[in-house]
Write a structure and sequence with these properties.
The protein has helices spanning 2-9, 16-36, 56-62, 75-78, 80-93, 98-125, 129-141, 143-148, 155-174, 181-194, 199-210, 217-247, 256-268, 274-284, 295-305, 323-331, 341-352, 381-401, 406-424, 442-453, 457-482. By secondary structure, the protein is mainly alpha-helical. The chain contains 21 helices and no strands. It is globular.
């Protein structure tokens, strides 16, 4: 067991120097984020406004509680140890360490995302170490990959789990082996537990590695059907239970007796400073009223009411208490069938995801002031669209060159999950760029097959990477250092 853990998480000889550079870059971004949210050291509330991302990790670390997150069924339970650690530190120091704890988690997930992507490019695609470094630089220079590794949301852990799954499945393909039952179950529960739909990508990998044996009942039932039914049922039960707790206000809202117990415990520990006791007590028993509607949901409802976006829920049917109803509520609510798919592809998927827009920077897609589609403007408009065009061109050529590779078929099948959810069904299409960590690795991997055949492509790719990196890092620094 220890050897397998070391094989997965041990850093190999050729990975060490690239990993050091990646670690320095990841730490730099997270230090900027820590500086931006520095007031949270002495204040539990966070004024979080970074595009469409949510501060779920921060909320759960500051004060862990049951939350109705149907699409993230195990995520809050994964955050429980970190919440308890922060609670312990609060008691003994009187400081809120939530952002620091989250930063350590984000840095770890981001670093191993880099390592797994490097291994995929180096060992499975088959490029040279230098070419793998260039392609990893392309991936981590993309705007919403940078944001993914520095915002307190679930996307960074999701990216880590998906790349881990792809690397393991790729190694199975390379050695002509199958993804085993227990490996499938563990990877599925880990991946779908953070984001439910990403669990399908584990099954996509299993299908390619196992081929016809995927349908063997001895594998299909214990590795696919039972875990799938189990996680969906758990998500429904967890969501219902969370709403019941919220409805009954059993999260200690204005609960003097329970709050007094915390105060008494702090005094027993020898803490006498009244302001410190007040701060710690408020952190453990948040006395602010819990509302069921987030600002993001309020903005979305306003847009729907005023005819902005899809009218899909204007005459929504009355919901019952079934799993299908829960899926409808949690999935269909965020779909948009009115948005132009072409505009979404050009300006959101291959636009904002890669090169952050200067206009309406990091404004929520559901904000009343922001257009649904933001286009590039100003003197750099032609450069922005030219960079996008050449990246897409390299992507298409890479897909053509790797068309006979099983691994490319595998990640293409994973990509189909995102295409189905976002492009066809329209889920989160207005802010599809925030999901970049779920699929953007497809671009460097596909281009890797092109570079493997034509190494001189790196000469044309290098200035594009430099442009994207400088463009995005400038906008991120400007926003994080000036807006607070």
């Amino acid at each position: 067991m220890l050897e397998k853990i070391k094989y997965i998480f041990g850093i190999r000889q050729e990975e060490r120097i690239p990993t050091l550079f990646a670690l320095a870059f990841i730490i730099l971004l997270n230090v900027i984020s820590l500086y931006h949210f520095r007031y949270t050291w002495g204040d539990l509330n966070i004024d979080f406004n970074v595009s469409g991302f949510d501060e779920y990790m921060y909320i759960q670390t500051v004060r862990w509680h049951m939350t109705p997150l149907f699409r993230h069924p195990l995520f809050i339970f994964m955050m429980w140890p970190f919440a308890k650690l922060n609670e312990l530190l609060l008691i003994f120091t009187g400081r809120n360490f939530a952002m620091l704890i989250i930063t350590v988690l984000l840095v770890t997930c981001s670093l191993y995302s880099f390592i797994f992507l490097f291994r995929i490019l180096r060992n499975i695609v088959g490029v040279t170490p230098r070419q793998a470094n260039i392609l990893c630089a392309l991936f981590f220079s993309m705007g919403y990959i940078m944001l993914t590794i520095m915002v307190p949301d679930s996307f960074c852990p999701s990216m880590f789990c998906i790349l881990l799954t792809l690397w393991i499945a790729g190694e199975k393909l390379r050695n002509n082996k199958k993804l085993s039952t227990w490996q499938t179950i563990i990877l599925f529960m880990l991946t779908s537990g953070i984001t439910l739909s990403n669990g399908l990508k584990v099954y996509a990998c299993a299908l390619i590695t196992r081929k016809k044996s995927f349908l063997n009942w001895r594998y299909l039932f214990p590795a696919v059907l039972f875990p799938l039914l189990g996680i969906v049922t758990f998500a429904k039960v967890q969501s219902d239970l969370s709403w019941e707790i919220l409805d009954k206000k059993s999260l200690i809202n204005d609960s003097i007796s329970n709050r007094q117990c915390v105060v008494d415990s702090l005094k027993t520990l020898g803490i006498t400073d009244k302001s410190k006791i007040e701060f710690i007590a408020n952190s453990i028993w948040n006395t602010k009223k819990i509302t069921h509607i987030t600002p993001k949901e309020e903005n979305k409802r306003w847009r729907r009411k005023n005819g902005v976006g899809s009218p899909i829920l204007t005459n929504a049917p009355k919901q019952d208490n079934s799993i299908i109803s829960a899926a409808y509520e949690q999935f269909v609510y965020w779909t948009d069938n009115s948005l132009s798919r072409w505009d979404a592809i050009v300006d959101n998927i291959f636009g904002e995801s890669i090169q952050i827009h200067r206009d309406y920077t990091f404004m929520d897609a559901y904000a009343k002031e922001r257009p649904v589609i933001v286009k590039y403007s100003g003197k750099t408009k032609m450069i922005n669209y030219a960079v996008e065009f050449f990246l897409v061109l390299f992507l298409v050529l890479g897909i053509f060159e790797g068309r006979k590779e099983q691994f490319l078929w595998m990640i293409s099948l994973c990509l189909c999950v995102d295409i189905l959810i976002h492009l066809i069904c329209g889920f989160g299409l207005e802010e599809v760029y925030i999901y970049a960590g779920h699929w953007m690795f497809f671009i460097p991997v596909s281009i890797g097959y092109l570079i493997k055949r034509f190494p001189k492509v790196t000469v044309a790719l290098s200035p594009i990477i430099c442009w994207i990196f400088i463009w995005n890092i400038y906008i991120i620094f400007e926003y994080y250092l000036k807006s607070n």
